Amino acid sequence: MKSWFNKLLGIKPQQAFPIVWDTQLPSIYTRLEPTYAQPHPLAWDNNLVACEPLGDSNEAFWAAGALDGTMIYHFGTASDNDVAGEILAALKAVLNHPDQNSMQTFYNLINEGSPLHYIDDVLKAIPQSQELNAQKLRELAFMLCTQSPDRNPVKFAMALLAYFPQQRSVDVLQVLGRHDEFTLYAVVALRAIVEPEHYAATWFAMAQRVNGWGRVHLMERIPETLDATIQGWLLREGFSNSVMNEYTAVNCAVRGGLLEALTTEHDDALLLGAAEILHALINEGAVSGMSVYDDGEQACLAYLHNILEYQPAHPLHYLTTKRISEWVRSEESQDTGLSSQLIAMCTQVLALAVWSDITTQALAGEEGYAFNLAIDVCRDRQVDPFPYLFERQSDKPESALWYQMMQTEDPGQAYQVCCLAEAQIDLSAIASGPALSSGTGLQWTAHRHLDSVLQELKRFPEMGWPLLETALQSPVIRNRQMAINALETWPVKSLFIHREFIEQCINAEPHEEVQQRLVNLRDSLCDLT
């Protein structure tokens, strides 16, 4: 009745905890809630949550969820008991006396860094504490989850929701978890909240809405019981992510039943998924792959049987077969008979007559994944893709085939690329003057195109001076470094005619290392003065 009466009079309920963040900033939850109706991942450049700077750079940023993911997979998350104790004490203080000072102190602590290093200790300590009011803790957790504009307080509060198994908690976690930055915290809490019989559906809905680090974390927490729909999705789409398929390949192969599927199903989507998964499993390094997948050899055998029988039209199958062949030949511990069988089948697949038509069709299609794979297939089969690439770039200046074209060993072809770059890349816009930019971001696209040519010019001395001259006046440090790499290979007599320009570059150069390299380049010309 009181709540209804307050609404009637327009009286807002009093906030139990003071707001200590910038109220001009919209909350993360408010930004994400309208997007949850979209049953697909957010665009990679969604800008819904500000990216975290990479070190001291003001241009380079961690991808969403990358900082937490990198710590988990490559550095570990050792507990920091001191920080956990400090945060627990601040939490008790703000629950007992929610004034401006106690809230500010608490918020500053949880906003300082990722919760990964202390959250487990805090969560273990909370049930053992007799000084924490559960109702107030719940209110604080929901407040932070839905109102804070800062990532770390939101993550901390999401972890707290594991103590409050109600539909409101599920709804809030699902909204926040659709962003790769928060998926880990959402799935850990949801696994504790959601009933086992409903967890698979909740997990699947989340998994389809993320494709970066969020999906990587979800694949480490696949439900115990899966239906055929989810298993099929794991093998055809679920493994795919924007980080590295190596992170997800083993779990998807095992839980999706890759070997069984390859013996009973034969659609193109499955075979493409199998090719990606097997390629990633063989390419283990950052994470384990074939070494922990017991069905690896048999899955490769079943995959190759399917390729020989159905000959699916995609260049990936050639490259995966080549990778399987290399892997089998390098693995001395494998069964000799099975190894011989796999090698023989790989040889048959690689010798199929269809690859010429498949690569030609892919190179004539849209630029993208299959297009780039077709280039690799051509080169492996000793077919020069340069004529296709050069003609396409010439006809479509909006293309970006500079890197692929510069993989040539032919100086004549490299010269053609340099001339085309001079015609199609806006060199005058790039040569705006040296600065300290890292060249990260969409505004530096032309500079990156120039990079793709510059990085190979060291193999072609005395070529591409207009491009090198432009690069030395670029604000992007990498452009200037690559230009110097190329100029260091020039004969002294050819470089001597540009000595005055090099001197000007020395005087204008703001980067100490680049300036010293230019000085060394100038000094190498002294013998001719």
Secondary structure: elements and pairs:
Elements: H1 2-9, H2 28-32, H3 66-75, H4 81-96, H5 100-111, H6 119-125, H7 134-147, H8 151-160, H9 167-177, H10 183-193, H11 196-207, H12 213-219, H13 228-238, H14 249-256, H15 258-264, H16 268-282, H17 296-310, H18 315-330, H19 336-350, H20 354-364, H21 369-380, H22 386-395, H23 402-405, H24 411-424, H25 427-430, H26 445-457, H27 465-471, H28 477-487, H29 492-496, H30 499-508, H31 512-523
Written account of the structure:
- The N terminus is likely disordered.
- It is built from 31 helices and no strands.
- The radius of gyration is 29 Å and the shape is flat.
- The protein has 529 residues and is mainly alpha-helical.
What labels describe this entry?
mainly alpha, 529 residues, disordered N terminus
- Helical region count? 31
The description of the largest β-sheet is: none
Helix content: 55-70%
Our estimate of the beta-strand percent is: under 5%
The dominant shape is flat
Residue runs with pLDDT of under 50 for 5 or more positions: 1-13
Annotation, overall tally of beta strands:
0
The average pLDDT score comes to 90
| Gyration radius from CA atoms, angstroms | 29 Å
Class from secondary-structure proportions: mainly alpha
Distance between the termini: 95 Å
